[in-house]
Specification:
The chain is mainly α. It is 67% helix and 6% strand. The strands form two sheets. A two-stranded parallel sheet has the order 1-4. It has a two-stranded antiparallel ribbon with strand order 2-3. The longest helix is centred in the middle third of the chain and has 38 residues, at 93-130.
Amino acid sequence: MALINKNHPILDVEEVESALKVVDQAIRELSDNLIGVGVDHINKIVGDLSDYDIYHLRDNIMYRVHSIRFHLVLLLRTRQHNEVKIHSGHPHKAILMNAQRDEQMAVFESIVFHSCSLFDYLGNIVDYVAAGHKRKKLQWRGAAKAARDKNNPLHNSPLATTIDKHSRQWIDKLYDYRSDLIHFKSDPCDVIYTHTGRDGKHEIIVFAPSRFVKSIAVLREKSKTHKLSLLFAAFWLVEYSTNSTLDIIGDLREHMEMNRRVKEEDQLFR
């Protein structure tokens, strides 16, 4: 199990509804920009409605984003469900704690897997629009490699710097972590039971798995002074995945403007 410093305060998500609103706002903004990608591709690149591939690529990204949010809510419900059990006087606290840990971790791993799939889809749409060959199978690591390749058309796009930044800062580490989970070993996490006598509150808190925290620089820094809950790590991952995607999609739209093939006066939508 991960070693948790008991002297550190716990960093958890205190205002869940507010945190969800932040996620939902980012998803709405991303959705609007993805719709814009389709319109820009018609107006600036192809000049008609015949290219259906761009819509499929765009819709795949939104499907994966909504899947990530679904699993975030599922994690919340899993945590709340077992808190109800502990409040009602469950006779086997240790069994409940282990079940809570394993169930929450299974859902968190799904968020990791869906996030990596999201970035693969993102790499595919970047490949299709900006890499010069109108392919759609580059995936994330292929897109990151193309962004660094001076002989690739993508290297001269404003996308290149943004992709490389997110790749080096955290997404490559997320891929390594996913691969480790799938192929080698699980990442166990700690769980504690707390009971506040003053208000009678019973709570089971599952902590973020240590290898995940160590692999992500932002979380690793926070862990020096706090014990990070699994819920905090999950919200962090969802927000970063959504905002990084939004950042790259914004640059993809800029790329289409810079590489316009259809004159503004000839564009279909005005």
